[in-house]
From TrEMBL:
<protein>
    <recommendedName>
        <fullName>Pseudouridine synthase</fullName>
        <ecNumber>5.4.99.-</ecNumber>
    </recommendedName>
</protein>
<dbReference type="InterPro" id="IPR020103">
    <property type="entry name" value="PsdUridine_synth_cat_dom_sf"/>
</dbReference>
<dbReference type="InterPro" id="IPR042092">
    <property type="entry name" value="PsdUridine_s_RsuA/RluB/E/F_cat"/>
</dbReference>
<dbReference type="GO" id="GO:0000455">
    <property type="term" value="P:enzyme-directed rRNA pseudouridine synthesis"/>
</dbReference>
<dbReference type="InterPro" id="IPR050343">
    <property type="entry name" value="RsuA_PseudoU_synthase"/>
</dbReference>
<dbReference type="InterPro" id="IPR000748">
    <property type="entry name" value="PsdUridine_synth_RsuA/RluB/E/F"/>
</dbReference>
<dbReference type="InterPro" id="IPR020094">
    <property type="entry name" value="TruA/RsuA/RluB/E/F_N"/>
</dbReference>
<keyword id="KW-0413">Isomerase</keyword>
<dbReference type="InterPro" id="IPR002942">
    <property type="entry name" value="S4_RNA-bd"/>
</dbReference>
<comment type="similarity">
    <text>Belongs to the pseudouridine synthase RsuA family.</text>
</comment>
<dbReference type="InterPro" id="IPR018496">
    <property type="entry name" value="PsdUridine_synth_RsuA/RluB_CS"/>
</dbReference>
<keyword id="KW-0694">RNA-binding</keyword>
<dbReference type="GO" id="GO:0120159">
    <property type="term" value="F:rRNA pseudouridine synthase activity"/>
</dbReference>
<dbReference type="Pfam" id="PF00849">
    <property type="entry name" value="PseudoU_synth_2"/>
</dbReference>
<dbReference type="InterPro" id="IPR036986">
    <property type="entry name" value="S4_RNA-bd_sf"/>
</dbReference>
<dbReference type="GO" id="GO:0005829">
    <property type="term" value="C:cytosol"/>
</dbReference>
<dbReference type="GO" id="GO:0003723">
    <property type="term" value="F:RNA binding"/>
</dbReference>
Length: 234
């Protein structure tokens, strides 16, 4: 098995991240550093990452977490902020987030130790629609909605057409549902900013067909077999 795949299937990280570890000399085969990306792991060889022996077949865990605001999507933080790792600390397997949500964004975050699935889901070619509900200051006019639907320039990048609908228009704010399949940094906030609107609150409610549902903030649930198969089939 190719070395990056081996590392990913041991639940250490995604395949892409594994390539970095290999190039940086963090990976040893039978005690010797291997920096060759295409290295093929043979039967009986031992693989270690950062001095820790790994096995390719760790049990796979897939969860949906409702990330609250004020947590970073990372397993540790140099600035000692709260991380999503703390919310899944009772799960013995080492999980990592599939993609990311901003510190100030809440909602659905998938976490797994299945590096192959992470790779698939975070690859741009897979175009999985993600649904967000944004509380936006002011009036969400038809003109603004039209622009968001067609695509807007968020600073050197023009977004693909989005699915947008106003859930509720109040006097001073609107609640807007927006579905996009790209994952540029702070994309939803930037898209609204590009049409002159400011996001006050942002929550992700679905990734493809996987829904947040009634999961409470800070809580997680295991994905069902059906959900896992759906994600693997994307
Ligand atoms: N878009 C954002 O602006 N923030 C997120 O966390 C996700 C998408």
């Amino acid at each position: 098995m190719r070395l990056n795949k081996y590392i990913a299937s041991a639940g250490v990280c995604s395949r892409r991240k594994a390539d970095e570890l290999i190039v940086n000399g963090n990976v040893k085969i039978n005690g010797a550093v291997v920096k060759e990306l295409g290295y093929d792991v043979k039967e009986g060889e031992t693989v270690s990452v950062n001095g820790r022996r790994i096995e390719a077949s760790a049990p796979k865990v897939y969860i949906a977490l409702n990330k609250p605001e004020g947590y970073i999507t990372s397993m540790n933080d140099e600035m000692d902020r709260a991380t999503v790792a703390q919310l899944v600390a009772d799960i013995p397997e080492r999980l990592f987030p599939v993609g990311r949500l901003d510190y100030n964004t809440s909602g659905l975050l998938l976490m797994t130790n299945d590096g192959d699935l992470t790779y698939t889901l975070t690859h741009p070619k897979h175009e999985v629609y993600k649904t967000y509900v944004a509380k936006v200051k002011g009036i969400m006019s038809d003109a603004r909605i039209g622009k968001l639907r067609r695509g807007v320039d968020i600073g050197g990048f023009v977004t693909s057409p989005a699915k947008v609908r106003v859930v509720r228009q109040m006097k001073t704010y609107a609640v807007v549902e927006i579905k996009i399949h790209e994952g540029k940094n702070r994309q939803v906030r930037k898209m609204f900013a590009a049409v002159g609107s400011r996001v006050i609150e942002l929550k992700r409610t679905a990734i493809g067909d996987i829904r947040l549902g009634r999961l409470m903030e800070g809580h997680y649930r295991k994905l069902t077999g059906e959900e896992i198969n759906y994600l693997k089939g994307l």
